[in-house]
Amino acid sequence: MNLLFIILNIVALLLLVGVLIIMQKKHVSFSKRVFTALGLGILLGLILNIAYGVDSEVLAETVPWYNLIGTGYVKLLQMIVMPLVFISILGAFTKITIGKNFGKMAAIILSFLIGTTAIAAVIGISSAALFDLNAEQIIQGDAETERAEYYEGRSAEVADKALPDQMLDLLPANPFLDFTGARPTSTIGVVIFAAFLGFAYLGLARKEKETAAIIKTGIDAVYKLIMRVVTLVLRLTPYGILAIIARTVATSDFGAIYNLGKFVLASYVALAVVFAIHLLIITLSGLNPITYVKKAAEPLIFAFTSRSSAGTLPININAQTTKMGVSEGVANFSGSFGLSIGQNGCAGIYPAMLAFMIAPSAGINPLDPMFILTVVAVVAISSFGVAGVGGGATFAAILVLSALNLPVALAGLLVSVEPLIDMGRTAVNVSGSMTAGVATAKITGELDKDLYNTPLSKIVTEEA
């Protein structure tokens, strides 16, 4: 009987995939297909959740089949992340403007990423105070207790991680290892390696113009090939979102979410405020924030459903360059740096909220101004090197709590609602990197305002 139900669940997903295929053949816009996939996925997930229950054997055996589409799509995105980052950064150096603006551009992007993370930490503390959160409110089940013990063990591994060591971790001792994504900071390592090659190209362009011209031709050819692969993968976005959100909703423990509802609500209030600050930055840059929301919708939706900043990178860069008018150099640097530095949701809000909640148990007044300043400073510094995949927030929390000499057990006590909160955190992370890209491009004069202000309906992109 279970096999029959599993087959029916698979057929239901395939039928919805068929609906999206029909929409594509009828030339329904890409944005509408993405939103339709999101709605259908939520509906299917709710039906499966209600029909079988979170812990059912049928659902457990159905999920791997849904992963063929959902996780398969994320893996394809992750497949092109490193080649895209490398060739895009290197290719940006073949355009003369980046040689002049590189230092200024990188400094502005990093300032936005780190600055907004510090602000996010203040907002996280404020939200925790507003909702009067504390560690005693966390209900500990078997899963929570097991995770708490695990993270207490891990705290010893990161407690002695000094800032110089964190900075050294960013450097690519073996760039070929970083191309495999073996380290949490691999993306930044690839960026640094590509930047060195880029500066080497600029040197050749001054001294050996014929050699530089040959190199530029090769870089441009590889760039076009990689971008073609990106286009092919992005066309699968609606199907990936459908399967991912259906799986996520179907396997969500709504009972646990209800028990920890206060923390979930406080988290999303903080995330909403940080997103509002992103819109404020866009507004202060002299740009329409509503336009930003419309053009950032697709990468933000995918970040929300996939919980992977790294997987969202190709969609992030594509939205910045083809819809918002950000230059390729700025878009690639902001997107790439945003994977491991200054993640507003994972490295900003979350660790700060946990520090506020657990401080009383260590005899510390969480509203003490010096404690708050210390938390903000530690959060900003610790935001270097946070992995751009699910679990990065927990790693950031361990770093912050360890640096503050606070018990790290709480980092593992929210396992029941971690996926739900991580969805919002990831979307805010991606929004932070996109905001940094758009604002930096505006400041450095590398933003095509006409393209930014062009309605989406008049922008024809290949992935559509």
TrEMBL record:
This is L-cystine uptake protein TcyP. InterPro entries: Na-dicarboxylate_symporter, Na:dicarbo_symporter_sf. It is a multi-pass membrane protein. GO terms for cellular component: plasma membrane. Keywords: Amino-acid transport, Membrane, Transmembrane, Transmembrane helix, Transport. Belongs to the dicarboxylate/amino acid:cation symporter (DAACS) (TC 2.A.23) family. It is found in: Membrane. It comes from Psychrobacillus psychrodurans. It holds the Pfam family SDF.
